[in-house]
């Protein structure tokens, strides 16, 4: 396994090393972690222990990762802090981090955690490389805060997403454009340093998606410069599909992210806008979908064109799992929105308009 430091030096190690959580402050970078059979890697830096503030909420007892659906975080743009009750409740932390003249709208990602906790990733539109991570308890109490969630990593990272992990842990998947890869930083449920993972190599990383799939690990998809790649870090912290991961069978549109849908216990579907070779070797532009199993094997003979949106192509698909084996994808056609049902068998049905 290759372990990568932010300075660019390379170290070689043969074992998985994990630093136990012992603190809740945010300043330290991660400890050694994550090997993989097809070499998984980690970024590492030193940690300075600090005592936990006494008013922080304790971690929930007996977290149940399998009680929550495997989904990506909910995303929204918040025009005023008062418009979101979570941000309003923690206004002091938001203003302390971004300053009184915070740039609006704020980009908010919310990841549901066991024990009715939530992990928030907040980004200021005028300071996109200054993210803030808050983990809040069911009663709204702050459990822990990361004012420098990517400390010790290549500076200037802007494209990132929050993601939960096993045993109520929390992570941030991000594009390391300088290193030509997508990476994942993980903390324990108490906010202690756990590990950094070099998830997948990709020459250009402009958009990233991630979710935790209980029993299978983290699925991360990076896209950029006409290529998208998916990778899985299993529950042991190892790359399941090698350093290069899976290359998706379509060319993503510039800046377009790929959505991840876990349609059954052992399979998932990737959805994104782009171009692919269609019938008669003609390239067609559409929102495409492809289904895979946990080994990374494609389960359809070719990507399916779910629909062809008119107007501006969505940067991130609007899609969700509505039942095992059934997914719903929304398309924009002019001023109207159209819903389509995508099945695990690969069929697409246009749904009636909501009334």
UniProtKB/TrEMBL annotation:
Protein name (database record) = Uncharacterized protein
Q: Where is the composition biased (Basic and acidic residues)?
A: 72-84
Q: Where is the sequence biased in composition, kind Pro residues?
A: 51-61
> Record's superkingdom?
Bacteria
Task: List every stretch annotated Disordered.
Answer: 26-84
Annotated source species: Polyangium fumosum
């Amino acid at each position: 396994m290759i372990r990568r430091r932010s300075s660019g030096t390379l170290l070689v190690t043969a074992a998985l090393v994990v630093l136990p959580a012992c603190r809740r402050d945010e300043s330290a970078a991660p400890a050694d972690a994550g090997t993989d059979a097809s070499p998984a890697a980690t970024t590492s830096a030193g940690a300075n222990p600090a005592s936990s503030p006494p008013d922080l909420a304790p971690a929930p007892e007996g977290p149940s990762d399998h009680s929550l659906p495997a989904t990506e975080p909910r995303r929204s743009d918040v025009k005023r802090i008062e418009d979101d009750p979570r941000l309003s409740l923690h206004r002091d932390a938001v203003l302390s981090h971004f300053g009184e003249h915070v740039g609006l709208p704020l980009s908010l990602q919310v990841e549901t955690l066991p024990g009715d906790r939530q992990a928030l990733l907040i980004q200021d539109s005028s300071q996109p490389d200054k993210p803030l991570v808050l983990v809040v308890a069911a009663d709204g109490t702050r459990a822990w805060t990361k004012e420098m969630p990517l400390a010790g990593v290549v500076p200037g990272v802007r494209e990132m997403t929050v993601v939960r992990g096993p045993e109520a842990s929390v992570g941030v998947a991000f594009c390391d454009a300088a290193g030509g890869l997508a990476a994942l930083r993980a903390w324990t449920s108490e906010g202690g340093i756990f590990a950094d993972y070099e998830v997948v190599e990709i020459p250009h990383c402009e958009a990233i998606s991630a979710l935790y799939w209980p029993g299978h690990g983290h699925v991360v998809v990076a896209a950029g410069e006409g290529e998208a790649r998916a990778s899985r870090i299993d529950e042991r912290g190892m790359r399941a599909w090698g350093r290069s991961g899976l290359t998706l069978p379509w060319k993503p549109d510039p800046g377009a992210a790929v959505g991840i849908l876990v349609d059954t216990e052992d399979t998932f579907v990737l959805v994104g806008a782009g171009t692919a070779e269609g019938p008669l070797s003609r390239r067609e532009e559409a929102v495409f979908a492809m289904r895979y199993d946990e080994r990374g094997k494609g389960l359809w003979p070719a990507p399916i064109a779910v629909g062809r949106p008119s107007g501006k192509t969505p940067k991130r698909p609007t899609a969700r799992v509505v039942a095992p084996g059934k997914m719903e994808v929304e398309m924009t056609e002019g001023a109207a929105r159209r819903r389509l049902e995508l099945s695990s068998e690969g069929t697409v049905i246009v749904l009636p308009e909501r009334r």
